[in-house]
Each structure stands twice: as C-alpha cells, then as structure tokens.
Design a protein that fits this description.
single chain, mainly beta, 12-stranded parallel beta sheet
Length: 415
Amino acid sequence: MEIYRCISFTELALFLLVLSVILSSSIQYAAAASDDEINIIPTADSPCPGASNGEPCFTLQQFIANHIGPNRTEFSTNTTLKFYPGQHLMDSQLSVSHVNSFTMWATEKVTIFCRQPYYDYRFKFDEVQNVLVRGIILNGCRVSLLQSGPVGNAAFIKSSFVNNTGYFCCGSRGGVLDMNYMSYSGAGSSVLIKQCVFSDNIGGTGSIFDSSHNLTVDQCTFKNNYGAYYEGGAIYSSSDYISILNSHFSNNKDVSQGGAVSIMSNQVTIANSYFSDNVAGGQGGAVVAFGSPVVVTNCYFTDNIANSNGSHGGALYAYGSNDGVIITDSYFSDNMAGSSGGNGGAIFIGGAFTQSGNHRDIQATGQSPNVTISGNTFEYNIASDGGGGAIYSGVQYSIISLIKNTFSHNTAANC
C-alpha cells in the first residue's frame, strides 16, 4: 500500500529557498567566465633569486594555471590578480591578449622576481584595453604593451621597477616598460605612471620607451638607469603629449642623447621636478627635445653634463621647437656642455632669438621660434669650448624675452 503525504507550507518554502540558492550559484559561476579575480598567496616552493635571507617564493605561472585550469589558455574579459604579501617567482612569460582589462595589485608589499633570459619580456600585454599595475615591485621583469587595435590605456601606480635589463642593440626599446605602437591604430591612448621608482635598469632606453597618445609621469623617482643604445637614460617618448611632474631624475646616463629624458612630441610640460648628475653621450645632459614646444616650470637642473666633443646643452637641448620654448622660475647650476666644442652650458635652443648680453651668458645665431625665459637663476654653468655659458641659441630672426633672470659665474670658453 502506497502512502502519500501532503507537503507542508514550511517544507515547500524551504525547498524553494534551496532551489533558488542552487540556481543563483549556477548563474554566478557562469558569469565568472568573463570576470576572474585570482588571489595569489605565497607558498614555500623555492627560494627567490636575490631574496634576502633565502626567503621562499613560488612560480607565479603555475599558481595561475592551477587556478584557471590546465586546459585554459586565455584569461577572462576582465581579470584581476590580487597578490598577498610575500615574494613571487616568474620563470617564463605571462602573455595577455585581446581582453578588456587586466589588473595586478597588492594588498601590501609584494616583490616579483623574474628569471633570465634577461632580455625577454616577462609581462606581455597585446591589445589589452586597460592595464593597471599597483603596489608591486618588479625585479628583473620587463613589461611590453602593444596596441595595434582598440584604444589602450595603462596605469602604473605605487610600484617599483629595479634591476631590469633589455637588449643593448638593434632597435632595442625600454629596459623596463616597452610601450611601442600604443597609438598604432591612430586612436588616442593614455599612460599614467604615478608614485613609482625606476632604479638600476638597463636597456636601449634605460627604463621607459613610449609612443602613446598621452604620457603622464607624476611623483616618480628615476635613478641609476642606463640607456645603452637608444636615446634617454630614463625615458624616451614620442607621444603626442608628455607631462613630467613632481619627479626626480638622478645619476641616469645615456650613450646617445638625453641623459635622463629624450622627447619627440607635440607638447612637452616639465614642472616641479629635479634633474641632477645626469650624463648624455651626446646632446642634452638631462633633457633633449626635438620638434617639441617645451614648457619648463619650477625645476632644478644641477650637475648635468652633455659629455662628448661638440655636445650642446648641459641641462636642456631643444631643437626645432616650432611653437616656442618657455622656461620659468627654474634653477640651473653647475651644468656643462661638451668635453670640448660644446655650446650652452645650461640651455641650447635650436630656435631663434636676437643676440643679447655676452658669450659668457648668452649667444644667439640662426632662426627659430620665440623663446621666453623668465624668473630663472643661472650660475656656474660651463660651455666647455663654445659660446653661451648659460644659454645658447643656434638661429636668429626670432625673439628671446629675458625677464628677471639672474646670471652669475657662468663660463664660455670662446668668450
């Protein structure tokens, strides 16, 4: 005999509640295919190269593979790697392509060590529309961003990049960040680098090679970087607009031009920044700018050197700046142009202004755009074997406006 029992209202309600939980869990799991957050917690698999006290770390790629599954080769549309305190090891390349966003951030101090070969990229982002790296130390890890399709934006915040090494020749790019072809599609892309440290990096350009639409460097430190083949001991940029704000550049060196920074952009703004003890093998001991309107405000340039024979602009070399040069409220001291035959102990401008003063301070010939130099101090700068101990212009038929500047103890060899 079969016995049937009616389900009570309470039991029915409980059944519906359980069913709704199951259904909602299934929906959430399906959605996870387009949004991943991977929590990366260190384990003691192996010691990190260069880690203090032999602190352990583990292989980052293996952790990610274990999380997303061994048969899965692509990241989700929006992926976040959340690092917990510790040290991590990368022994091969992490390549991310054709996703909407990729974020790497740390809850506290995190270091990622990358094994050799030294010249290869460790993080490669290809047509990723938005990249964010925050609070991470990358030791020996080069980063590549390629953007030949949709608009690409990137931000590097409160991170450090140390001991990175790139190629020394043959079209080599940045020792740390290679952001080549960021605007290849013609669409505007923006890169923000804020509160970061770049130290002891070597590459064609010491740290950053950039061709984005808009590059902003704010509150950063660049020290002991070396450009071994290309231009810019710390930064090379051919972006449409570049702003360098509230930053420090010291002891950077480039075998070619721009001991700290080399720029070929539509608009250059440098403000509230310090450049000291930078050395260029060619023009511009600290900064070289080609074809760029240049605005420099409230900056310090001390002990920078354009070091080879016939090199000009101990601190700043600006050439072909068709829309003018404006330098205000800045300090230039103890900069030197050329081991011999150098003009412009502090500033060389391949732009025009009529001759004024004497060769110890200013010399001008040729033709170029208008120049305004206002409220600056120039002292103890040296043009080793040329003219313009403080300022030299290579052209004429334009106007220089000198307003409330101070010149003291500048030296020009041909005076």
